[in-house]
Amino acid sequence: MQSRPLPSGSTPSPRSRPAVHRRPEQRAAQAALSEAAAGDRSAAVSLAGLLDRLAGYLPEADLQLVRGAYRFADAAHLGQYRASGEPYISHPVAVAEICAEWKLDTPALMAALLHDTAEDKGITQAELIEHFGSTVAMLVDGLTKLDKIRFSNREENQAESFRKMLLAMARDIRVILIKLADRLHNMRTLGAMLQDKRRRIADETMDIYAPIAYRLGLNQVYRELQDLGFQHSHPMRYAVLSQAVRVARGNRRDLVDRILAATTKSLADAGIPAQLHGREKTLYSIYRKMQRKHRSFAHVQDVFGFRVIVPEVLDCYRALGVLHAQYKPMPGKFEDFIAIPKLNGYQSLHTTLIGPTGVPVEFQIRTEAMHRVAESGVAAHWLYKAGESAEAIAQVTTAAWLQSLLDIQNENRDAAEFIETVKVDLAPDAVYVFTPKSRILALPRGATPVDFAYAVHTDLGNQTVAAKVNGELVPLRTELHSGDVVEIVTAPHSRPNPNWLNFVRTGRARSKIRHELKVSQQDESQALGKRLLARALQQMELRLDELDSAQWSRLLHWSGNRTQEDLYADIGMGKRVAEIVAKRVQLQLVAVDPRALDETAGPGSEGHSEGILQLDGSEGASVHYADCCHPIPGDAVLGYLGKGEGLTVHQQDCPQARRLFQKHPRSWIDLSWAPVVGGLYQAGLSVVVSNGKGVLAKLAAAISEHDADIIHVRMDDESLQPTIELRFILAVRDRKHLADVLRAVRAHRFVSRASRTRPRG
Questions:
Q1: pTM score, two decimals?
Q2: Residue 464 pairs with which residues in a beta bridge?
Q3: What angle (nearest 5°) sits at the alpha carbon of residue 306, between those of residues 303 and 309?
Q4: Residues with Cβ within 8 Å of residue 595, at least 6 apart in sequence
Q5: Cα 97 from chain centroid?
Q6: How far lies 736's CA from each of 197, 565, 634, 701, in Å?
Q7: Which residues are catalytically annotated?
Q8: Angstrom distance (rounded) from CA 283 to CA 287
Q9: Which residues contact 101 (CB under 8 A, 6 or more apart)?
Q10: Cβ neighbourhood burial of 597 (10 Å; 0-12, 13-18, 19+)
């Protein structure tokens, strides 16, 4: 097939060979030779193999569309070569052939042929839409990396590319199927690359693409990507292990044949029609088992396994009975993935038996429909359209996961964080737990009751206060195990705890917690900002509720905020100072020249206002109480408005506050406590006691009797000394409450000194 000229709007390929400057007659001769060579090499890339595959399931009209996409791609990649020296068009054709194995539809095959034209040759999406329609253009766009966007580092670029690809996949599963075919062919031909680049691509494949293939049920692709990744990441280990497996294969061929013959006869005698296949475990799975169990290859015996394929689900269990009668099962080595499918929809019975010579032998028993899903996963949707239950399970589980990707993206716009979140959900290991009503949920290994709550419903997760596992109360960070029955205890006004982010495992839980914390902080910052602005206006004898829409419009135009709420939030977070905003309002009202106000002044540029903001305990996350001095109601306090940090409350005699004041004197506001203050506040308590048995228990009892909670306790590591200092962090209501606790503590004879901890410098 003759190559066509490069389509208009394209740019020279970065992978093309560099030009050499020659005289005009030399350039003309060289161009003629290059064109002839390129034509010869492109002609060597045959489309016949692909068309033969497609002819089995596509009509002639669709084959013409595929030919048109090939001609366009061939012209676009003219003069471009792979690292192996082959014409570049050979790669898109190979990707399309892999897609044809899954019987993907015509737009997907066209996108596979065109997938590098935008990235490498600068073909625009408008050109693709003009030539091939919006569907093909959308698929190509989803596959295109973000090379034209400048990022601070390669990791950020890679994360953004993955994010875009995963979101395109969530909207159309064909994107990731083409991408996996692209990665599979690249891995098959990776040997032409330099060692450093091979290792980097192999690590990326093992980290992202192989887990995605597993998550979509593409087990054949998953296994091949893992083995190819292992081969290029650890070439010496791969070579040694490959040789060991070849030797073992020769030594055990007779054993495999004996087991196949005996099992075939047993199943036939039981009247169970079955197909039996011996299978060899992948090199990477053997390597991982050696690592996990710290064993040499000689001690990894179950290198070979068998697959039994039967007509019906009940035949699976009948075949299991026949096998267990023939060979003894190994205790704890049976798993029923038919009753409880894996996260990716995989279904089979797994059992490990003791073979004739004492060697463990693994059997996988499944129906034909389960086998199709086990090998092709979500691609079975195109391969087999019979609508059998096994394919339906794969579709439902995949759709649920893809929807979760969209949910996570909507609540988390940071690309690197998005990818880290998704990686957790790509982990192959899972635990299967039950709701109190016996509904089964699959969660990643290491998941906690909080992950479980968010998997059931967002509101359940947000209102979680406690959890019961198998009827017993457990800490929320408890790791769940398969078979656990989990019950969540809720409270209507409860909110997520930021500490949950330290132990949750699922991307859904992590994104929902972050989203809820952000929303609640925004609400509280708005409330605080509104109070600060009202107070600042009051000092100028103005009222916030008297500002009309025209005044608000001018004020928002000046501040750059879209809404009043955004302006309040900026004030509450310390990004703007209430006194500056109030002065702007005053200038607008009295028609003073706006230039009279220094709008570039930092927080608190007018110094302390005469008005004092009152704290009543309802401020929420927008107000922080400093850990250096632990202010409580009754203390003389000051407020520090750090930019973007909200309001931090310090005691007036706090050494750290004095240092901050010297650096940022304009960032402080006067505070006082309201007549009635709610909530609990942390206070430090230092107690010196005579060292003896039961001292800590008696002190804890005295503190508890006075309704104070112990948040933290620490003691010196001087157990042999006659006296010891205990340092508590308590939750108290105010200074009076703390004084009551101190009196109760001092009443004990073994206490030599008890006092509130002084602010730390």
A1: 0.56
A2: 490
A3: 155
A4: none
A5: 32
A6: 68, 37, 8, 19
A7: 119-120
A8: 6
A9: 53
A10: middle
Domain map (residue ranges) of the chain: 24-235, 241-393, 516-673, 681-756
Give me the pLDDT at residue 397, please: 61
Q: What share of the chain is helix, strand, coil (3-state, %, to 5)?
A: 55, 15, 30
C-alpha dist (Å) from residue 417 to 176, 246, 507, 700 = 20, 43, 10, 42
Tens digit of pLDDT for each residue in 662-721?
Answer: 888 877 878 889 888 888 899 999 999 988 888 888 999 999 888 898 888 888 766 567
* In 710-753, alpha helices (H): 735-746
Contacts with 586 (C-beta within 8 Å, 6 or more apart), sequence order: 540, 542, 592
Burial class (CB in 10 A: 0-12, 13-18, 19+), 730: buried
Backbone angles phi, psi at 13, to 5 degrees: -70, 140
Which residues have C-beta within 8 Å of that of residue 151, sequence separation ≥ 6? 157, 160
Structure tokens at 723: 């006296």
User: Which residues make Cβ contacts (< 8 Å) with residue 645, sequence separation at least 6?
Assistant: 573, 574, 624
What letter represents residue 140's amino acid?
V
Q: What is the 3-state secondary structure (H, E, C) of 361-391?
A: EEEEEEEHHHHHHHHHHHHHHHHCCCCCHHH
Whether the Cβ atoms of residue 202 and residue 208 lie closer than 8 Å to each other: no
Angle at 602 between CA 600 and CA 606, to 5 degrees: 100
Q: Is the CB of residue 327 less than 8 Å from the CB of residue 304?
A: no
C-alpha distances out from residue 351 to 280, 331, 371, 591, 704, Å = 16, 10, 16, 85, 55
**Residue located via tokens 């093992």:** 206
Contacts of residue 752, Cβ cutoff 8 Å, sequence gap at least 6: 688, 689, 690, 723
Query: Which CATH architecture describes the domain 241-393?
Result: 2-Layer Sandwich (3.30)
Question: Which residue from 157, 175, 74, 180 is spatially nearest to 117, judged by alpha carbons?
Answer: 74
pLDDT score at 152: 52
pLDDT at 717: 65
Domain 24-235 sits in CATH at 1.10.3210.10
Low-confidence residues of the chain: pLDDT under 70: 1-45, 145-170, 250-251, 298-303, 377-429, 574, 590-612, 619-622, 643-646, 717-720, 761
Around Cβ 150, how many Cβ atoms within 10 Å? 8
**10-58 pLDDT, tens digit each:** 433 333 333 334 444 444 434 433 443 444 444 446 788 888 888 888 8
The answer to whether the CB of 457 falls within 8 A of the CB of 479 is: no
User: Packing angle between helix 134-143 and helix 174-188, nearest 10 degrees?
Assistant: 50
Q: Could you tell me the CA-to-CA distances from 261 to 40, 257, 269, 281, 651 in Å, in that order?
A: 52, 6, 12, 20, 84
Integer angstrom CA distances of residue 532 from 282, 519, 580: 65, 20, 11
Q: What CATH topology corresponds to 681-756? A: Alpha-Beta Plaits (3.30.70)
Say if residues 190 and 348 touch (Cβ distance below 8 Å).
no
Query: 10 Å Cβ neighbour count for 29?
Result: 12
| Alpha-carbon gap, residue 584 to 557, rounded angstroms | 12
What pLDDT does residue 481 have?
Answer: 87
In the beta sheet, which residues pair with residue 305? 279, 362
Helices 578-590 and 564-572 cross at an angle (nearest 10°) of 140
The torsion region of residue 387 among left (phi > 0), alpha (psi -120 to 50) and beta comes to left
Here the tokens at position 484 are 């656990």
> Which 8-state DSSP code applies to residue 209?
I
- Contact between residue 442 and residue 471 where contact means Cβ atoms under 8 Å apart: no
139 and 377 Cβ atoms separated by less than 8 Å: no
**pLDDT score of 591:** 54
Closest C-alpha among 424, 486, 420 to residue 450 = 486
